[in-house]
Each structure stands twice: as structure tokens, then as C-alpha cells.
Amino acid sequence: MQPFAYARPETLAEVVALLERHGPGARLLAGGTDLVINLRDGRFRPEVVIDVKRVPELAPGIRAGDGGVLVIGATTTMTQLAAHPVIRRDLAALADGAAVVGSVQIRNRATVAGNICNASPAADTAPALLVHGAIVVATGPDGDRRIPLDAFFVRSGVTTLGPAELVRAIEIPAPGSRIASAHQRRTRRRGHDLASVTVACGVDAAGLVRVAFGSVGPRPLLRVDETGALGDPEATDEARAAAFEAIFADATPSATSMRAGAEYRLAMLRVLGRRALEAALGRMDAGAAA
Ligand SMILES: Cc1cc2nc3c(=O)[nH]c(=O)nc-3n(C[C@H](O)[C@H](O)[C@H](O)COP(=O)(O)OP(=O)(O)OC[C@H]3O[C@@H](n4cnc5c(N)ncnc54)[C@H](O)[C@@H]3O)c2cc1C
């Protein structure tokens, strides 16, 4: 590992100033579960590592913001997400996704901002956050800017964050009606491997279905079921299969990945898509009955 300076600022302004001073030579440290591996492997060779865990504006926590927005602090861990009663009730796919990240030890360290900023196509919080319309609150020298998560991901390891920007929080806008959601994934070995396929489905009270999926291309994708078949209890199996074909049309899994072959991933995408939809519809029914 190449030597680097270590900074532990206590204010957001100090973090931004360090990012401005060091540019691409700076790397933020949250839980470190991705960063440390990249440092050890020599993929990242920063001049300075900036530990953000003492910055109050990035503190872990899930709270109601103005206008019914749900605000998730940048350093909220997977363990905290998976256990939080509001996340489990209103963003069930996010609780599902956070609960299957790595192992207990990883989930106790891994943060939600680290998960999306690492921008792995296999990130387990990404599909759920996309389905629930998450907005990334980025802070930089010019203050805050809000980026819809769908406009944040570019490709593996690359986001639309500016060079001196960091993620301060993630906001979930208040939905017009309740969204019931579920997350499904496939891995080779639980606890030690990233997903070969991830899918989240969300259905609203009008039956509109949103599907987000990952690990089958350079970034997670979000699609809306324009046919209406996925949320229609009267739809035939053929109509639902056709709707999924349209949704998954842009999946482009790597032909050379060591995790799973492209054909297998495409087949699993359809299986997990159906399972996630059934789980989301079941949760909608359960919520309606409650
Ligand atoms: C054994 C193991 C198993 C894993 N299993 C899974 C899994 O099943 N599913 C999954 O999705 N991931 C998995 N991961 C990956 C990792 O745990 C997650 O991506 C985690 O959420 C990263 O969060 P972190 O806080 O540890 O990020 P860090 O490692 O601290 O940071 C990750 C990246 O984001 C940047 N960053 C961090 N915070 C901010 C911020 N606020 N603003 C801007 N940039 C920031 C860092 O500079 C770095 O480039 C696994 C990792 C390991 C080691």
C-alpha cells in the first residue's frame, strides 16, 4: 500500500476545502469496506484519505425532512437501514437490500453513501433507492445540489459527483401514494461475494410498477412498466412476460465475468424480476389489509 496522509476533519467545510486542495489526490473514507481494498490493491493511490465519520452533517440517521421527505444521513450503515422501522415499513426493498450486504461485520461498517459512491453495478442498495426515486444531496464549494440517483450513476466506479463534491445525504421524496417494494438478488456465496444479479420492484396504489436492476451492465438501470401489465391482477402470464422483456431489454451482462455467465444472468434476471414483483404485490396487499 502506498503511504498517504490521513485527515479527520470535524466540519463539512473542512472536508470540502480538503477536496478542493487535493482534487483527485483525495479519497473519502466512510466505512472503508470498499476503499481499503482499493488502497491495498493499489487501484487507488491517494495523497490524502479523509475520514468523514466525525462530520456532524454526515452523521448516521434516518429522519423526516420538510414536505414529508425522508432524509438518510450519508454514513448510515446497512445494519441501521435494515433495522429501521420506517425503512422496513415504507422502503421494504431497501431494508431487504441492506440486510444481504456482505456479512454482519461488513454491514456494521458499510454506509449507504459509500455503497452508491463506489458505484458498483452490483451495489445492493441501488435498485431499491432507484425504485423509490432517491435524490442524492451533494455538497461542494457552491453548497448543496440535488441529483436524482438515476442521473448519478455513470459506470462502475464513476458518478456525476464533481471533483470537490461529496454526498451529504440521500433523500426519498414523499410518494403520491404508498409504494410497496421488494429486492431480490443472486450471489455465488452468501456473505463473501457481490451479486450476479439484483432486482427491485416497487408498486404504487394505482398499480404502476417500477423495476430497477443491476449487475447486468455497467450501471444499475431503472425502468417503468409502460404496459401496465405488471401491476394488473387480470394480466396474463404472457402479458407479464412481455412487459419484463421490455424492461430488461437494455441488460448487457459481461461475457467474461468470473461471477456468472451472461446467459445465466439474463435468465436469473427474469426469475428474480418475477419474484420481486410477487413480493412487492404481496406487501401491497398485506399493507392494504393492515
Ligand atoms: C467482504 C465484502 C463483502 C461485500 N458484500 C457486498 C454486498 O453483498 N453488496 C454490496 O452492495 N456491497 C458489498 N460490499 C461492498 C461494500 O461493503 C459496500 O459498497 C459499502 O456500502 C461501501 O460503504 P463504505 O462506507 O464501506 O464505503 P468506503 O469504502 O468508505 O467508500 C467507498 C467509496 O465511496 C467514497 N465515499 C464514501 N463516502 C462518501 C461520501 N459521503 N461522498 C462521496 N464519496 C464517498 C469513498 O471515497 C470510496 O471511493 C462488500 C465488501 C466486502 C469487503
Characterization of this structure:
- The chain has ten helices and 14 strands.
- The strands form four sheets. The chain has a five-stranded antiparallel β-sheet with strand order 4-5-10-6-7, covered by helices on one side. The chain has a four-stranded antiparallel β-sheet with strand order 11-12-13-14.
- The protein has helices at residues 12-22, 35-40, 78-83, 85-90, 92-99, 104-109, 112-118, 126-131, 237-247, 262-289, and strands spanning 5-7, 26-29, 48-51, 62-64, 70-73, 135-140, 143-148, 153-155, 158-159, 166-172, 179-186, 197-204, 209-214, 221-224.
- It is globular.
- Among the domains are: 1-55, Uridine Diphospho-n-acetylenolpyruvylglucosamine Reductase, domain 2 (2-Layer Sandwich), CATH 3.30.43; 179-289, CO dehydrogenase flavoprotein, C-terminal domain (Enolase-like, domain 1, 2-Layer Sandwich), CATH 3.30.390.50.
- The relative contact order is 0.12.
- The chain is 33% helix and 23% strand.
- It has 290 residues and is an alpha+beta fold.
- Strand 4 and strand 5 form a beta hairpin.
- It binds flavin-adenine dinucleotide.
- Residues 27-35, 37, 52, 58, 74, 101-102, 106, 109-111, 113-115, 117-118, 123-124, 166-167, 192, 194 line the site of flavin-adenine dinucleotide.
Q: Helix- and strand-based class?
A: alpha+beta
Bound molecules: flavin-adenine dinucleotide
Shape: globular
- CATH architecture of the domain at 179-289, by name, is 2-Layer Sandwich
Number of contiguous helices: 10
What is the CATH class designation of the domain at 179-289? Answer: Alpha Beta
Strands side by side in the biggest sheet: 4-5-10-6-7
* Uncertain segments: none
CATH superfamily of the domain at 179-289: CO dehydrogenase flavoprotein, C-terminal domain
- The radius of gyration computed from the alpha-carbon positions, rounded to a whole number of angstroms, is 19 Å
